[in-house]
Design goal:
- The strands form two sheets. A five-stranded antiparallel sheet has the order 3-6-5-4-7, with helices on one face.
- It has four helices and seven strands; from the N terminus they run αββαβαβββαβ.
- With 209 residues, it is α+β, with helices and mostly antiparallel strands.
Length: 209
Amino acid sequence: MSFLQRIRETSTSWARSARVRPQRIFAAVCLASACALIVWMFTPDEAGTAVVVARSDLAPGAELTAQDLTLTNFPPDLVPDKAFTAVEEAKGRHTSAGLSKGSPLTESMVLDQQALPKGSRDLLMPIRLADDASAALLQPGQQIRLFSSLPDGGSEVVVEKVTIARLVDKPDGIAAESGQLVSVILSAEDAGRVAEFAGLPISFAILPR
């Protein structure tokens, strides 16, 4: 093979490589873009507002610890009203109702710790009243008498007098329990009396001021 032929073959090979190289670069860019799109599609959106939720199921009246709570990001439009956004804000409070795992914690779901004067021996206790319509007449500070309907008929006074500390907001939806949940101020003895009627419907009468 002559020297000139070698030069021609080398030039031809170089020209072919030059024509292919931009195509390879373009294909590489397309592949990288596709990979980036796939990663973006399958990466969860971390944007949102951190809300305190129950780490496990919690019973009514439970004292909240850091181990009971965790933070979960909620879309801004789905953040409940008066939700706690830091575990420290809720730690040490007591639940006013039972909470299931993952439930957001709001101010209405904890007992009002300011309802009791410092040094008081009284307790705060959640009670579910059977009559929703009548419960609409209640407001914090009122004193009521509690009754219970007995399984064999008739009724019995449960506690002569308790003070309303808070009316707990009812959640919306078909899963919401019937009856108004209230937190009341009462003595330890009366709290034990109320516990004896657990599971029975509780009604009330408003006492005059």
